[in-house]
Amino acid sequence: MKQDLRKQPIGIFDSGVGGLTVYRALREALPHEDFIYLGDTARLPYGTKSKETVERYTINAARLLQKQEIKFLVVACNTASAYALDALQNALPDLSYCGVLAAGAEASVKTTRNGKIAVLATEGTVRSGTYINFIKKLRADADVQMQACQMLVALAEEGWCDGVEAETIISRYLNELEPGFDTILLGCTHFPILIPTFRKLCSPDVNIVDSASVTALTVRDLLVARNLKNPQETPGTETFLATDLPERFARVGKHFLGCDIADRVHLTSLITSPFDFEDEDFLLGSVA
Amino acid sequence: MKQDLRKQPIGIFDSGVGGLTVYRALREALPHEDFIYLGDTARLPYGTKSKETVERYTINAARLLQKQEIKFLVVACNTASAYALDALQNALPDLSYCGVLAAGAEASVKTTRNGKIAVLATEGTVRSGTYINFIKKLRADADVQMQACQMLVALAEEGWCDGVEAETIISRYLNELEPGFDTILLGCTHFPILIPTFRKLCSPDVNIVDSASVTALTVRDLLVARNLKNPQETPGTETFLATDLPERFARVGKHFLGCDIADRVHLTSLITSPFDFEDEDFLLGSVA
Description:
Two copies of one chain form a homodimer. The first copy, chain A, is of the alpha/beta class. The first copy, chain A, has two domains: 7-100 and 213-281, 3-Layer(aba) Sandwich (Rossmann fold); 102-210, 3-Layer(aba) Sandwich (Rossmann fold). In chain A, 46% of the residues lie in helices and 15% in strands. Chain A contains 13 helices and ten strands. Chain A has helices at 20-29, 51-67, 78-83, 85-91, 101-111, 123-128, 130-138, 150-158, 164-175, 195-201, 212-225, 246-257, 275-287; strands at 10-14, 35-39, 72-75, 97-98, 116-121, 143-148, 183-186, 207-210, 238-242, 265-267. Chain A has a six-stranded parallel beta sheet with strand order 4-3-1-2-9-10, sandwiched between helices. A four-stranded parallel beta sheet of chain A has the order 6-5-7-8, sandwiched between helices. In chain A, helix 2 (51-67) crosses helix 4 (85-91), helix 5 crosses helix 7 and helix 5 crosses helix 11 (212-225). Chain A is globular. At the A-B interface, helix 2, helix 8, helix 9 and helix 13 of A face helix 2, helix 8, helix 9 and helix 13 of B.
């Protein structure tokens, strides 16, 4: 008998805990789905790493989740969404997935009045230029500036979401922006937990959007359109996998998820693909 | 003809650029040695990761450097020194190496008058308890407190070494310490570049020590004692290897090294050991 695809879980992948902001929105939008969340805490953060490295890590993670028979993958990490979706498509052509950049770009274009958008993101997401491409596709005359805000990742991970430290750091990044924008797009899943402090420091005319809630609605619509929505009427299950330190994942994740998941995080491992061996041979040869 | 071991290079390993503070001191203490520095920038930081993961990464790195025929390995990362030296000894019994904790502990014990020492380090180094063990061995009545300062890593990486952001963050960590200590031991190789700001915020009675310069002197003495010092009288060579983004390594590394190394950083790769494959099979089985 053929398996009912609709009853398979949805996979969510992030470099660590930041993607829990996306997961939280997904669970609200799709309460009857089963979810498997994978955080690659052994190799986080992705935001300071290269396209090639992020591609490799993302394919590793997608393969692991595919073995769990997920019906759909949400790439909840902005850096992975910016860098690795083409590589994912090539490596795993049968996998249905979406990233978080398209929805974030759409939200910012819908929100802006004057077309001036400031995107705050990791170094990698900024370097990729992907947000600018997405936004320009939707509104060709948009005036988009990107700002790498690496310290905000550390701030969110430390749980220092408000207070003088958060205000000082966020102010510095805001001061580095060209004035005139009316919309800030938070282009990293770590940043939404800093919104109250952003709100305090920004003019009331400035809108702050992020991709978590819009991505969740996009995923819901996609599942309905493809007849993949789980027909069960009971609440779905949730499983959290971390590639390192499940306790730390639970502790930091609490800030992002707003509830305690201490007993539900399991340790897992991501293999490195065989071409790493070839790499090493090659590079050892060239270095010696 | 037997190879002259003395002419082999010294390997230095760190999770990223922080260990360049140790390398800088080594180069000053041992100007005629050839050095190969390896920064595992594809998997940094180590400070938030588990003992098992840091052990695996450290052995990977040591194996790569051993293939470069190093005569001695300096584990310049505090977290790796705290967690992984026993595993390194077991995995590579023929390798001569030293970490940075013993020298740092010794420096703090020599410096303190009242025996009260505050160690600032990464989460992993704090969790390991290794600094406390080292210090207590040297002075049993020492009163040691440890403080995890994860934000200082991000601050140093961002190059925000002074100014209001650095002051605000360092003040918060200093305020979390029990007063009474007369010595601060900077137990992470990223932290020494923040010393001017620490100096500004601490009472003049408080001494600030780090392990970089003492480790360099320890290595010099070890090489002399074992007749491993390079007899050449010309300046030694230096090679920098990074497992990801050599340009970023050079850019951030400049803050730590005080000079430009943009044309001397090469990309390399660290393999994951075969037991990761077993891990994955095991864990996929247990999760499904």
